[in-house]
Each structure stands twice: as C-alpha cells, then as structure tokens.
Write a structure and sequence with these properties.
The chain is an alpha/beta fold. The protein has a single domain, classed as Spore Coat Polysaccharide Biosynthesis Protein SpsA, Chain A (Alpha-Beta Complex), CATH 3.90.550. About 50% of the residues lie in helices and about 10% in strands. It has helices at about 10-25, 30, 45-55, 80-95, 115-135, 155-170, 195-200, 210-220, 245-265, 270-280, 310-320, 330-345, 345-365, 370-420, 435-445, 445-465, 485-495; strands at about 1-5, 35-40, 60-70, 105-110, 140, 145, 190, 230, 235-240. The longest helix is centred in the last third of the chain and has 47 residues, at about 370-420. The two termini are about 30 Å apart.
C-alpha cells in the first residue's frame, strides 16, 4: 500500500498528526509505504521531511520523501503535479516487484485522519477482485468525508459550506455499488498502480487543478467507462478552513480563505469540458493497441521510462478492458456521470441565476408579467423550490446528523484503542441534532451556498473565457502543538 501525502507549506504539526494516526493502524508496519510528496517551491520542505522521517522511523513498512522540482515545462503548481512526481517514484520502487500489479496507491490530503478500517476494507476488496476472474483490479476506492475536527471553532458560514460539501458527496455514496455507480472522490481515494499506468498517471497541467475528480475521469475513460467505483464505509476526517486569527480580522480572514478554497474547487469545472472531449472519442470499435503502450507518452506519472513489466501489465489490463461487449457512448452510466458533473459544475450557479432572474421578473410592473401560463409556471416552480429545500433539510436533520455522530464515535473509539485520544481530545466537534445553532445552520444554507458555491463557480466560469490558470493557494488549516519536541528535532537537523 503506497500512501502519497502531498504537502506544500503545510505545518509540521498537521502532517505529524496525520502520520501518527496512520502509524496507529494494524497494517502500518507491514503494509504502509509512505511517500511524503514535498515541493521544491517550499523553502522548508527538506527540513520538514527530515523531521518527519526521524519521528516515524520504524513506524511504517517503509517511508521516503520526494521533492517535486519547481518550474518544470508544461506543469502548473498544484496537488496534481506534485502527486504525479511522487507517483513516478512509486513506479520506480515497485517496477521489478514480482507482484507489481497488486500495489495500491492511496492519495490523501495532509489534514486527513483515516480509520484503519478504510485500508483493511480496500485491501479485502482488492484481493477479492483480483481472485474473482484472474484479471487485474480496475476499481477506484473512495471514502466519504466528514468535517468533524474543528467545526465548532470556525465561523458559521464556513462550517455550513463544508457541511453542504460533505453532504453532497455523501448523497452519491452507496454501500452496494452497481455497474452504473458513479461517485466523485474528495481528498482521499485509492487506485491500483496498474490502473494508474493504464490511465497514464496524473496530469500536470492547469487543467488538472481539480485533482481528485480529474484523476477519476482519467481512469474512467482509460477503461472506456468500465472502471468500477467502490465507496468504502469508513469516513475520512477533515478540518474546516481557518486562519487561526482572532477578532473581526480573523473572522474576515476565515471567510476569505474559504472563498479562495471554493474558487479552487470550482475552477475544476474545466473537467466538464475534458469529460465531453473524452466522451466524444468513445467508439464501438476500439483497438487494443490504442492503449497497449502507455510508456510511449511522457505527459504523466513516470511513463517516459522503458519498463517491460509495466507494458506487459498494462497490455493485459487493456485487453481485459477493451475486449468484451461493444462500447457505446449512450449508456446509462455515462448519463449518470454527466449528471454528477451537472450537479457539481452547473447546478449551483444555475439555481442562483434562476432565483435572481425570477425574482426580478416577478417584481416587474404590468403588463410584462401578464402572461397567465408564465405566471402559473413561475408560481409552480417556486413551490417546487420550497419543497426541494424542505427535503434537503430533512435529509440533513434525519440522516446527516446521525452520520456525523457515528463518524465521531468511530474515530474516538479507535483513537482510544491506539492511545491517541488524549492528544486529540480537542478535535471532536459534536453536533446536537435539534439545537438552535444546528437549526440556524440549515436556515443559512442558501446564504452559505451562494457565497461559497455559486459565486466562486460563476467567477471561475467567467474567468475561463480568458485563462485556465489559477494561482494555487493552500487552504489554511488549524495548528495544534503536539507532545513531541518538534523544535528540538528541527534544531538537531539544522545543526547536522
């Protein structure tokens, strides 16, 4: 299990906390190979990596760090290009391994806390899929997310935005996926290394800023829609964006930071155009040699090296992928895929513009609104919007609140067994289902959704008329001191 942990100017305490949780897992010493993906643009990258390497010596099966060079031609700064560079090291590491195709690659954000259950379940499914018919596993594994660490310490609109983000992802989650299941990973996902190579790795250009979705789409179309998506019922714990500043300036800074994160997320609407281009290439007569030699392209994760084993495995995967029933563009699963893209990249701004336009139109004086059928249609749709909002609120009150509590209780139970509960005692943000604050969260859904969803998406869409490049800003996360003497370790490394 290769675990890639990308970092750019992240606080050492944040990375250490995530690694301590990983180190507490049963499989850590026998199965986890940690790749700290650092950036050359970060002046403290080497020092931070060395500190973490010393702190976690012997805690994992293996641990190493990579430094993604700055200003490589054709690359855009960001998570995807960093992961792409680290993935090259993963391939080099396991190229000559006799069981190369069994390697799994997990990518996770630096602030993520995962339960051991996630990796154990992924491994069980992976082994089952490989033994099923003797073919290489073509499955993307992903957990739902939950913001349960510092939600009670951030401004309400920021908390609501992440609450809606988590709930939206959970809405397409299913414990019994079918052949038409399509879900979009967020922050954490796992793919077999053979599938990574078939998809030619992670893209490094500005079009890949929505790294999680972009890689899912690459794998989806590399397998011509036959990739399986397996949600794993083991949530990934996340932190809300916060600058850590106090007072009015801190309150404004937190909202500004969350908007910047929302803009980065919505900048990923470039993936809708990419998906349309890839969809148009689908043909009912696909030749195997189209993807039998991924080593011939050098646009992504390590495919510029000559590696016979790599080509052999990808060829076998291609044959399994491309031989079978004829492929068609107009399938139910493709329709589900584009419905997910519509929900992510169109619906937020579409709803906002429709509401604004209908409100303005209804306020206009006679005789502009004298058409009876139009007036009836606008009245009906206004009722439908109220009903939709009511059902969404019921979904959160009945289902999400129970989900949130179950996530916290599961994480607290595992941290107690691992002896980390006292250290993380302040990182459990409980919610009361019918409290006044919770009810106000639901009342303010439209406000937060507009500020951190519709507005940044509209800005991204308009900006794409001129450019597809965005300055990648790391989301501000809370900093918590740990009992280990980080300053002492840093001083020792500097002295050396």
């Amino acid at each position: 299990m290769a675990i890639v942990l990308p970092s750019y100017k992240e606080e050492t305490e944040m990375l250490e906390s995530s690694l301590r949780v990983l180190a507490s897992h049963k499989l850590a010493r026998t199965s986890y190979h940690i790749f700290l993906a650092m950036e050359e643009r970060d002046p403290n990258a080497t020092t931070v990596a060395q500190i973490l390497m010393q702190l976690f010596t012997g805690k994992f099966r293996e641990m190493q760090w990579t430094v993604h060079p700055a200003d490589l031609p054709g690359e855009a700064p960001g998570k995807s290009s960093n992961v792409s560079w680290a993935a090259k090291q993963v391939e080099r590491k396991y190229l000559n391994n006799p069981d190369w195709s069994s390697v799994l690659v997990s990518v996770m954000d630096s602030d993520t806390h995962l339960l051991s259950q996630y990796f154990e379940t992924v491994l069980a499914y992976h082994i089952r899929n490989r033994k099923g018919d003797g073919t290489t596993d073509m499955t993307l594994y992903m957990p739902p997310i939950v913001f349960d660490r510092n939600a009670s310490e951030v401004p309400q609109l920021v908390r609501i935005a992440d609450l809606m983000w988590s709930g939206a992802g959970l809405s397409c989650f299913t414990t019994k996926p079918t052949a038409s299941t399509v879900a979009i990973p967020t922050a954490v996902y796992t793919v077999p290394l053979a599938l990574v190579c078939l998809a030619r790795g992670w893209d490094t250009g500005s079009e890949a800023i929505g790294e999680d979705m972009h890689m899912m789409l690459k794998c989806y179309f590399a397998t011509h829609g036959r990739m399986k998506i397996r949600p794993i019922a083991s949530p990934a714990s996340q932190c809300n964006v916060t600058t850590g500043k106090g007072g009015v300036r801190g309150w404004l800074a937190d909202h500004s930071a969350r908007y910047a994160q929302g803009l980065r997320h919505m900048w990923g609407c470039l993936d809708t155009g990419n998906a349309l281009r890839q969809w148009c290439k689908i043909s009912s007569n696909v030749e195997v040699q189209d993807q039998s030699s991924p080593a011939s392209e050098a646009s992504s994760a390590g495919c510029e090296l000559e590696r016979p084993r790599h080509v052999e495995i990808c060829l076998r995967l291609s044959q399994h992928t491309l031989h079978g029933p004829k492929l068609h563009r107009f399938t139910w699963r493709n329709l589900v895929l584009f419905s997910r893209l519509f929900e992510a990249h169109f619906l937020p701004v579409h709803l906002c513009l429709v509401l604004s336009a209908s409100t303005i139109y209804s306020a206009l004086p006679y005789p502009i609104v004298s058409c009876p059928s139009l007036a009836a249609a606008m009245t009906l749709t206004s009722y439908l919007r109220v009903v939709g909002y009511a059902f969404m609120t019921m979904y959160f009150v009945i289902f999400y609140e129970g989900y949130h509590r179950a996530c916290i209780e599961a994480r607290a139970s595992e941290m107690k067994k691992a002896g980390l509960y006292e250290e993380l005692a302040g990182e459990f943000s409980y919610r009361r289902r019918l409290s006044f604050i919770t009810m106000m969260d639901y009342v303010l859904f439209p406000v937060s959704g507009t500020v951190f969803g519709s507005a940044p998406l509209l800005q991204a869409i308009v900006s794409h008329f001129w450019t597809d490049k965005l300055v990648y800003l790391v989301s501000a996360k809370p900093i918590k001191a740990t009992p280990i003497g980080l300053e002492e370790h840093a001083a020792k490394i500097i002295d050396v």
